[in-house]
Structure formats: structure tokens, C-alpha cells
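Researcher: Re-running this chain for the archive, since the previous output was lost when a drive failed. Same request as before.
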Amino acid sequence: MNVKWDDIGDVSLASFGVTIAVVVLFSLGIVAWSRAGGPRGGSAGGGQARVAMGAAVLCFAACLAVAAYGIGIIVPD
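Model: Regenerated C-alpha cells:
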């Protein structure tokens, strides 16, 4: 039995990179959501709050897309 160490390293680096990217996206989503005024749409100005909420939604949607893709790879058809 032969272990392909290069392939194991490639998979490890790719998973580490995707993990960092998802954590950064989620953190940016939290920051944008707090600038928009949080779940109740609090005190931020009108136009800026909409832009911040849009950015938060995009960040969370990207995290959801990555998670769904990963589940799609793992779960058989």
C-alpha cells in the first residue's frame, strides 16, 4: 500500500485555506451586520445601513454556499 503524501498535503492546504476564508467571511458578515444596527436595524443611517445589511447578507450567503457545497461532496446521491 502506497501513501501519496503530496495529495494529502494538497488536501490539507486546501481545507485550511477554505476554513480561513469562511471564518473571515463570517467575521466580516458579523461586522457588517453590527454596523447595520443588528437584528432590529437599529441606529445606523438609512443608506449606510442598507449597504451594510447587503454586505452582511452576501457574506452569510457565501458561507452558506461553501457549507452546502461541502455537504454536497460528502453526502452521496
